[in-house]
Amino acid sequence: MKLDSKIPQGPLDKKWSEYKNHIKLVNPANKRNIDVIVVGTGLAGGSAAATLAELGYNVKAFCYQDSPRRAHSIAAQGGINASKNYQGDGDSVYRLFYDTVKGGDYRAREANVYRLAEVSENIIDQCVAQGVPFAREYGGLLDNRSFGGVQVSRTFYAKGQTGQQLLLGAYSAMNRQIGRGKIQMYNRHEMLDIVLVDGKARGIIARNLINGEIERHSAHAVVICTGGYGNVFFLSTNAMGSNVTAAWKAHKRGAYFANPCYTQIHPTCIPVTGDHQSKLTLMSESLRNDGRIWVPAKMEDAVAIREGRLKPTQIAEEDRDYYLERRYPSFGNLVPRDVASRAAKERCDAGYGVNATGEAVYLDFASAIERYGKEQARIHHMDENDAKLVYKLGRDVVENKYGNLFQMYEKIVDEDPYTTPMMIYPAVHYTMGGLWVDYNLMSTIEGCYVLGEANFSDHGANRLGASALMQGLADGYFVLPYTIGDYLANDIRTGAIPTDLPEFDAAEKNVRGMIDHLISNNGTHSVDYFHKKLGKIMWDKVGMARNAKGLTEAMAEIAQLREEFYKDVKVSGTNESFNQELEKALRVADYLELGELFAKDALHREESCGGHFREEHQTEDGEAKRDDENFAYVAAWEYKGNPSEAVLHKEDLVYENIKLVTRSYK
Amino acid sequence: MNLTLKIWRQSNAKEQGKMVDYKIANVSPDMSFLEMLDVLNNELIEKGDDPVAFDHDCREGICGMCSLFINGEAHGPDRGITTCQLHMRKFKDGDTIYIEPFRAKAFPVIKDLVVDRTAFDKIQHAGGFISVNTSGNTQDANAIPVPKHDADRAFDAATCIGCGACVATCKNSSAMLFVSAKVSQFALLPQGKVEAADRVLNMVAEMDALGFGNCTNTGACEVECPKGISLENIARMNREYLKASLK
Amino acid sequence: MAKSALLKSSLAKKYWMALTGLFLCLFLVGHLAGNLQLIFGDASAFNEYALFMTTNPAVKVLSYVTYISILFHAIDGIVLTIQNKKARPIGYAKNNAAANSSFSSRNMAILGTLLLVFIVTHMANFWAKMHFAEMPLQKVEVKVEGQEPVLIYKTVQQQAIPVNAVEMGQLEVKGTQFFQPGTDLKVADGYKDLHKITVEFFKNEKTGLIATIAYVLAMVVLGFHLSHGFGSAFQSLGVNNPKYRGCIKGLSFIIAYVIPALFAIIPVYIHFFK
């Protein structure tokens, strides 16, 4: 099958409006007869479900959590971008579009990104109307802040909880429709397969997580909004339950998986402390505005620190290596996420890492405290040479800006970041790759739409801060409601889809077979045992820096581990009960397949771009080397029974409005 | 650290449950409380026992999924955090730790420490929203200025994560703090004022129908709330409700 | 909606609880003002006050409101407590409630029940006697210079009715009224001597000390009840915000600690110093 991105003709800035003017519509009376399934209730799923229900479709929404409000969009901290230009600093739709494409290292689809930038303004209007309490200035108008990789202030925020507030906005819109009976909500349900009838997505098989019932749900279209797959690394900033299952099942039924290897490793996370670790916690990117990142310049100091014989505050200024400032003088500590992460890894690999595991660098606020303190002393006409006073004043300023983050750090690490530098290390955060979709957000399965982080479309090889929230809501509120109508207009005479079709029988049998195997396997190791092993392979060989040898080994090791898993996993309990081990086992089974495809994709992409860094493709001073001539395409993989045998389809990326240049932060 | 855990075990909603003792050894003080339970569960699984079911998801204190009543307090002895942010360094070697589910008639146990909190969703269905279409065809976001003070207080109320610690803590299993946080968020913003009367009447009626207890102003909810939602919100809701009932 | 909301909802129950509670606090202030005359006034002043309280029509209306308030406050409290118990069918094996709430706030029902018991005995001891029982009438000594003091009944009409006149049958006493013997001709109204009853109650050789202790304990209970109840009423009525908080706290201190303390001082004073 040839990939058709269905990008509308015409000039970039007219594509979306022209498209909307010419699509087919479904009249309100007919919408009542059309069912849509939405899987996942984060920003993308929640906003899509609410909007489709409001338009009049019958929506069935599914989430594995006990309430749609708990989807992991809730954990996003920093903010949401929109080209409102409220600050009058020269922002525009074009600039947001340009920054996003450039930030994605020129691996995103122009038309999609432009549309995203266009509807970004509507998002803010919509959210304010819904009662989302964005930060405001004293005049009562909305406040903005600046984020990494851009030169304007276009980020709207609600303290460090923007994702939470936006999700609760979408959740409230859903609640309105649930109250009206237009959305049927299925909490604690997990989609375990998608059902195709005559090649079209017509339903799903879902497991009721409370009693283990395997349920059939039919609809005229299926919308997958199940987020990213960062948990393939076991340790990530994702929620414990975040999974690839829905997307992977769709992939196995015919949806192509695009660019699985594009993963964002976030530089400022709290480091791993031991084997018991289950989860990594992100510290907001905003900390890099004031914190300076360093490791000891002398190996003996690094060793002494690791062994607990030396404290970071005892190391003299000249014995510190502020490696980001050294390597990237013009951007310093504010280089993009991928660059900062790789630089930290490089230092730790060279043996300069600082905590007991050797995998941590310092994020130091001492100079910020001093700088702010002196400034305050001058403002208030106090003695700026009084070190104690300066420290106190400066500490107050830092506390005002980052107090909640510092407190969070102290709770977890049990060290006071005001007096000793924070320790940070990169961690898996976001996956730019996902199911391939066309301009309509439809996957290669007809009638199966994919929104938000679950699709691949808008962030290229690297996502900019505050863009994920924008994309989720844009897809759900403003894009899908139009594009899905164009498809469903053909279904007004179809009538309800029966769930006793042989296709449903087959899908259910498939799911039951898998569950029976896992339950009756009676192996020796828990699911986590395998998940941790997979995570280690992924992190060591498919992590921040990749090479052909490691990737080839990883593919073999993952295949081997998968085999072992099916032979030796132990899942306690039964299917017919609340069984968290079974839930995990089903998710890990899919990660064990995805992981291999992930490595295969990374192996085939013989270039370095964004979050994908191949050691073979770097400049002499260790910077990423992109290959636009050979790799300016989307790699969409078709399932062929085994991840290693997946077939590659290419969608060439055509840039008509932007000139491809090398990203440099020197 | 070596610890004794007294954990509520209940195989499903219908069965009766009981407290069961477990010993756990070599607990690192750097572990989070839930990681300690992960370790326990792994030991149980490898021994062929049924692991302890407990709710959790984001493990960074924002999704509101984790619950647990630890040593007689919702989310344990520390303040301003959820269970997933509680660390073992808050305990001492040799301690006995009671771990129970959040208890309320409106939160029936599903299994072990997992409870059903859909009652909270139902209250939101009754009015926890502003009736605005999601078309994006609203007025410009800056068309209605909102005083910063009001916006900040609305935000403070909106930070509720819906974990249910307030209900679990309240001796009456009252949901007032939860409901009042939503009522307050919207009552403080001009966008929400239009429907304020109906909203508060409907949400309170639903809250009462679901079997939550009455507020007796003990203030325990505010103390145990991981997000520090203030009792002022309850006062505001009482005010809003009085206004609405007199209309 | 609105009407049933004000009668049935959980919030409405709290409004009524708060309103009746606050009214009872007002009653306490009035009651205390009268009682303090046991220390600062003489018997006449106290008995005049007692008569006023039992006969003035406005006070009568208020007293009915008080009875209703007490009943409503108690019944509402019982209903709330039953509902609240039902809201948690299975309790905790370990509940460290002291970590997050005050003793009083958690035990309002028990404190309230103790107060109800106190109110019933208190009314039986004083209120019922004043209203329904035959009571001695107040006598005062009149001294005229150079003569033996004369004992007369104190009357509303300021008419001197010598005690021996009644004893000799020159006047007849029915209830608190003096009549010409054998006729309906009322001469004057006497004062029930509640003062004497009260003083004797607390100075009684056998039971006075117990009564005093019981009374003081009841006031401690009242203090606990009010220390949560008074401020709580404002919260229930929605009048709690940072602006008023200081004021409510101050008032709460007076209502919860000063008033019960003053009440408690009276029997102690009578028992030990009168």
UniProtKB/TrEMBL annotation, chain A:
<dbReference type="GO" id="GO:0050660">
    <property type="term" value="F:flavin adenine dinucleotide binding"/>
</dbReference>
<keyword id="KW-0472">Membrane</keyword>
<keyword id="KW-0285">Flavoprotein</keyword>
<dbReference type="GO" id="GO:0009055">
    <property type="term" value="F:electron transfer activity"/>
</dbReference>
<comment type="similarity">
    <text>Belongs to the FAD-dependent oxidoreductase 2 family. FRD/SDH subfamily.</text>
</comment>
<keyword id="KW-0560">Oxidoreductase</keyword>
<dbReference type="GO" id="GO:0008177">
    <property type="term" value="F:succinate dehydrogenase (quinone) activity"/>
</dbReference>
<dbReference type="Pfam" id="PF02910">
    <property type="entry name" value="Succ_DH_flav_C"/>
</dbReference>
<dbReference type="GO" id="GO:0009061">
    <property type="term" value="P:anaerobic respiration"/>
</dbReference>
<keyword id="KW-0249">Electron transport</keyword>
<dbReference type="Pfam" id="PF00890">
    <property type="entry name" value="FAD_binding_2"/>
</dbReference>
<dbReference type="InterPro" id="IPR027477">
    <property type="entry name" value="Succ_DH/fumarate_Rdtase_cat_sf"/>
</dbReference>
<dbReference type="InterPro" id="IPR037099">
    <property type="entry name" value="Fum_R/Succ_DH_flav-like_C_sf"/>
</dbReference>
<keyword id="KW-1003">Cell membrane</keyword>
<dbReference type="InterPro" id="IPR015939">
    <property type="entry name" value="Fum_Rdtase/Succ_DH_flav-like_C"/>
</dbReference>
Automatic annotation (TrEMBL), chain B:
<feature type="domain" description="4Fe-4S ferredoxin-type">
    <location>
        <begin position="151"/>
        <end position="181"/>
    </location>
</feature>
<dbReference type="InterPro" id="IPR012675">
    <property type="entry name" value="Beta-grasp_dom_sf"/>
</dbReference>
<comment type="similarity">
    <text>Belongs to the succinate dehydrogenase/fumarate reductase iron-sulfur protein family.</text>
</comment>
<dbReference type="GO" id="GO:0009060">
    <property type="term" value="P:aerobic respiration"/>
</dbReference>
<dbReference type="InterPro" id="IPR017896">
    <property type="entry name" value="4Fe4S_Fe-S-bd"/>
</dbReference>
<dbReference type="Pfam" id="PF13085">
    <property type="entry name" value="Fer2_3"/>
</dbReference>
<protein>
    <submittedName>
        <fullName>Fumarate reductase</fullName>
    </submittedName>
</protein>
<dbReference type="Pfam" id="PF13183">
    <property type="entry name" value="Fer4_8"/>
</dbReference>
<dbReference type="InterPro" id="IPR025192">
    <property type="entry name" value="Succ_DH/fum_Rdtase_N"/>
</dbReference>
<dbReference type="GO" id="GO:0051537">
    <property type="term" value="F:2 iron, 2 sulfur cluster binding"/>
</dbReference>
<dbReference type="GO" id="GO:0022904">
    <property type="term" value="P:respiratory electron transport chain"/>
</dbReference>
<dbReference type="GO" id="GO:0009055">
    <property type="term" value="F:electron transfer activity"/>
</dbReference>
<dbReference type="InterPro" id="IPR006058">
    <property type="entry name" value="2Fe2S_fd_BS"/>
</dbReference>
<dbReference type="InterPro" id="IPR050573">
    <property type="entry name" value="SDH/FRD_Iron-Sulfur"/>
</dbReference>
<dbReference type="InterPro" id="IPR009051">
    <property type="entry name" value="Helical_ferredxn"/>
</dbReference>
TrEMBL record, chain C:
<dbReference type="InterPro" id="IPR034804">
    <property type="entry name" value="SQR/QFR_C/D"/>
</dbReference>
<keyword id="KW-0812">Transmembrane</keyword>
<protein>
    <submittedName>
        <fullName>Succinate dehydrogenase</fullName>
    </submittedName>
</protein>
<feature type="transmembrane region" description="Helical">
    <location>
        <begin position="251"/>
        <end position="272"/>
    </location>
</feature>
<feature type="transmembrane region" description="Helical">
    <location>
        <begin position="209"/>
        <end position="230"/>
    </location>
</feature>
<dbReference type="InterPro" id="IPR011138">
    <property type="entry name" value="Cytochrome_b-558"/>
</dbReference>
<feature type="transmembrane region" description="Helical">
    <location>
        <begin position="108"/>
        <end position="128"/>
    </location>
</feature>
<feature type="transmembrane region" description="Helical">
    <location>
        <begin position="65"/>
        <end position="82"/>
    </location>
</feature>
<dbReference type="GO" id="GO:0016020">
    <property type="term" value="C:membrane"/>
</dbReference>
<keyword id="KW-1133">Transmembrane helix</keyword>
<keyword id="KW-0472">Membrane</keyword>
